[in-house]
Amino acid sequence: MSQTDRESLRLWLRLFTTTTLVERQLDSALKREFSSTLPRFDLLAQLECAPDGLRMGELSERILTTGGNVTWLVRALEAEKLVTRRVSPTDRRAAIVRLTAVGKRHFASMAQAHEHWIADIFATLSPDDRRALHQRLGVVKDRVRSPRSTT
Amino acid sequence: MSQTDRESLRLWLRLFTTTTLVERQLDSALKREFSSTLPRFDLLAQLECAPDGLRMGELSERILTTGGNVTWLVRALEAEKLVTRRVSPTDRRAAIVRLTAVGKRHFASMAQAHEHWIADIFATLSPDDRRALHQRLGVVKDRVRSPRSTT
DNA sequence: GCTAATTACTTGATATTTGAAGCAATTGGC
DNA sequence: GCCAATTGCTTCAAATATCAAGTAATTAGC
Predict the structure, then answer these.
(1) Order of strands, edge to edge, in the sheet holding A83-87?
(2) pTM for this model (two decimals)
């Protein structure tokens, strides 16, 4: 293993650890203050950005999870009256999920707290550092997103 | 929400997405080529670095999971003869987990492939970029690790 | 040395996630 | 229009994760 490989490994380890720690912190704060969870929050956040609703498949792509999991999550959120599910008028296979009025209010209050938590965490970096981080993560993301080739 | 907050949010989203995508790719490659998984690999990797073995509690801290989960994982790996579990001679409450010879060989072959995958993914960044990323993630990690205060 | 508090781990119930299989609706090629 | 392939979703079982409670061993305070 070359020195470069070792450094990449350490980088990946740190990336993983950092993300997991932030995730945990957000998840436990959501639990503590709103009796919710990060996956639920993420799903609601996607719906918030889509006033016309989203199909199940779109949801699963956006929150990076499987279709089965979205079915499960939406069922739970539906039971809590935070979202509704309707058959699409143009494609009867598809289900369209939307935030309810209650869901919107609920999400808004969570989102506000969530933003503060995030801002607090990343406030340790200067704006320039944040931009640099964002940019470089973008490079890695694009790399992983597209089928890899040996360049 | 200020512009800064919005940027932090986007940064977090990208951090999360990137990590998840890399994780998925590694996990599916481990499945495909070694019929293993990332959590198993991570556990074995910790043991590889500790020739004298690790206690269950140390393992759960290092791989950022709960004690119950480590019990579960170790039981599975033990059944596959990749690790052994012995009562600590100095503290009979504690269990010490070690790689077996088979486990070492198995891990070594996985680790080699794993390193290539990682190196390949991060090769899109220059060495300087990698260092910069590593350093800034460290700042965030330290922030989340320690109890937060406002600034 | 005894007792209470602490620590290390396991257990069992439950929650979440995945993956494969299945079903119904839609689409494309004829 | 008709059939095969595809698509969108659900279901089910299995893998994985959490949490709270329980058990056993250790430590601390006296």
Answers:
(1) A54-55, A95-99, A83-87
(2) 0.91
